[in-house]
Amino acid sequence: MTRIDFHSNVSNQLDYACRLTRKALAAGCRLVVRHQDQAQLDQFDQLLWSFSATDFLPHVRSSDAHADITPVLLSLENDPNPGRSEILLNLSESIPADFARFERLIEIVPQEYEATQAGRARYRQYQQQGYQLNHINAK
């Protein structure tokens, strides 16, 4: 069963996602980062290049020709099934349809009211489906 971690009270979702991406790569994991908004995904893409002066965070879009050999895939909600990865990092406000195929799902919930409400709704839905949930308060 997929392990689900909720990180709440996050002040800057994209910066926090970069830190989690770096941590996953350091552990040798492959991950998919999913967002519902193209502009936000583009911003995250750029942030991965400039996030750290000493770390290289290799990433491509899930549709890229190099997706099979790149450990971090960036994906929109409606993109085709993105390769094999252990972790799904969800930056979207909806439940990913294919989350159960991943070993681990990480939900990052920003502090903004609407995002917090959407995160709580996702939490309840996972809970109702019988998933054990882990909560990490980022504050």
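^ that was protein a. below is b, sequence first then the tokens
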Amino acid sequence: MNANNNNNIRRNIVIKDSFIGDADIGKSWLVYAYFGLEDTEYIYSNIGTEKYEKKLDFEVKSYKIIIYDTPGMERFRYQIRFQLRMAKIIFLVFDMTKKKSFLALDDFLEYIQEYTDNINKYTFVLIGNKADLKDQWEIKEKDANKFAQILNAKFFLASAKNDPDKFRKFMDEFFEEYIQKHKEELEQLEANQQQRVIGHPNPNRRRRRNHCA
């Protein structure tokens, strides 16, 4: 059988996600921790969206986890709307030592509501960063839990710098749970991708063939 037959092309099933939250709360540290980049000495505040990818194998299928680390500064917040069109999961991040960052999540949710046709299509995850600095907390854990319940979201207390392994474990387990729950939807997405590949072959490839003929 021809190995280049379009029917044999298999692609990773893509799951796109956005990390959203105020500036200077450690969003990028969390993303770096998940991707095993926590040895980076300095991370500067984003003025643009950074994209990271990771392959996750689960039940004989391969998934491509794409995470967009979005800017938290208000003047760059317009960039979030472009990621909202593609995201399936939104990680709402705040700093346990900064009450302002927790209250800012209401503004982000209003922004999401404004630029999407259905906010309920997203799976939300609430992450309280800097959990190790408990003596400096400005948010009560019970209040964060209550907010997560309103969103029907998982809540996780993280310490990107001091316990990256725990955060990685949480993320991998969350994605596995998400894949299991949305298995039929994701498999249908894969089938649609396959159909697009079969129905719309790469025109550049066809031009190359004609050039070589």
